[in-house]
Amino acid sequence: MDERLKGLSVLGSTGSVGTQVLDIVRTYPDRFTVIGLAANRNHKLLSEQIEEFEPRFVYYKKPLEEGIDFPASEARKVTLSEIATADDVDIVVTATTGDVALSPTFDAIEKGLDIAIANKETIIMAGAKLMRDAGNKGVSLLPVDSEPSAIWQCLRGENSLIEKLVITASGGAFRDVPIEELDQVQRTDALKHPTWEMGAKISVDSATMMNKAFEVIEAKWLFNVDWNRIDVVIHPESIIHSMVEFEDGSTKAQLSPPDMRLPIQHALFYPERLPNTKLSRFDPVKTKELTFRELDHDRYPCFQMALDHAKKGGTWPSALCGADDGAVEAFLSGKVSFREIEPLIRTSLLAHKSVTNPSLEQMQAASKWGKNQVNNLVSTKGDNG
């Protein structure tokens, strides 16, 4: 392989983050080579990606969609872990949702590969082990999400103690909908995010503020900050992505128009910063104003509920991830209303028996348990209603 090229394996290549990762590769073809692509069931797009990027290895869920035929290619179908640990891979991009990236991420760390991490569940479920193993192997965890990326950028060059992290939130699709009208909102409404283009799952998590709770958990582990030193504020413009307050009272913020390609590019090129004409620039005059609101816990009950469970440790965070996954699926399929998501998750977790110092297998089992608990509650609701 050409020494100038960074070898990438992209887990979740057909999703929102994965496609934007490949857009960066497309912009800088002389800097990257794609070693592996992994997708779920969007076989048509994966077929197009295989033809364009010519990976050596691919992963996809069988069976292939009717009428889809992969292009003639040298690519060999392998497992997710094989894609994550293939020869000549320098950076593994984990852009999947759910716990599917958990084992491949740790396999890549064991091999000493850097991780551009967009998969929240890996950090939420296994934060302590992730940081410990990455540290022992000298592996860099490169944040891809805009908020942890912003914190990461603000901390570069600083040796001062962190007084506080301030993570911003758009407020999601329903931030201005009267609370009493949230029972009537529909799936299509939840997917209309006011500032970001995202997949269905994360759009709903943004609307419930579960996504922001997950980002607080991410920040706690990635930056070794106590829970009580992390704040969240609503920032409708989504220009400031996070802020860091230092012990002397000074605050640094990272600002840019909302475009996931910027934090993705920063992670892939770190520590370099390169120009990208596809990305718009922040113009303070045209922006005119930056506004902030306190987080309304009555509007977003998922936020505190999620943090309360995550702070318990053990397999509680894993069960939380699975329960949220199940509840969001139930909402997207029309089985429950938007306002039923939080009580559904909370009720499902009442029966959880946490495991202390869990293995990866126990974390995955707890996630599966959480999702099954929600599914059972939804089925019971359907039978009774």
Explain what the structure shows.
With 385 residues, the chain is α/β, with parallel strands linked by helices. It folds into three domains: 6-143, 3-Layer(aba) Sandwich (Rossmann fold); 146-258 and 281-301, no CATH class; 312-385, RNA polymerase sigma factor, region 2, helix turn helix motif (Rna Polymerase Sigma Factor, Chain: A, Orthogonal Bundle), CATH 1.10.1740.10. The protein is built from 15 helices and twelve strands. It has helices at residues 16-27, 43-53, 80-84, 102-110, 120-137, 146-155, 187-190, 200-208, 210-222, 261-269, 284-287, 301-310, 316-332, 341-348, 360-384; strands at residues 6-11, 32-38, 57-59, 76-77, 91-94, 114-117, 141-143, 162-169, 230-234, 240-246, 251-255, 293-294. It has a seven-stranded parallel sheet with strand order 4-3-2-1-5-6-7, sandwiched between helices. It has a five-stranded mixed sheet with strand order 11-10-8-9-12, with helices on one face. The longest helix is centred in the C-terminal third of the chain and has 25 residues, at 360-384. The chain is globular, with a radius of gyration of 20 Å.
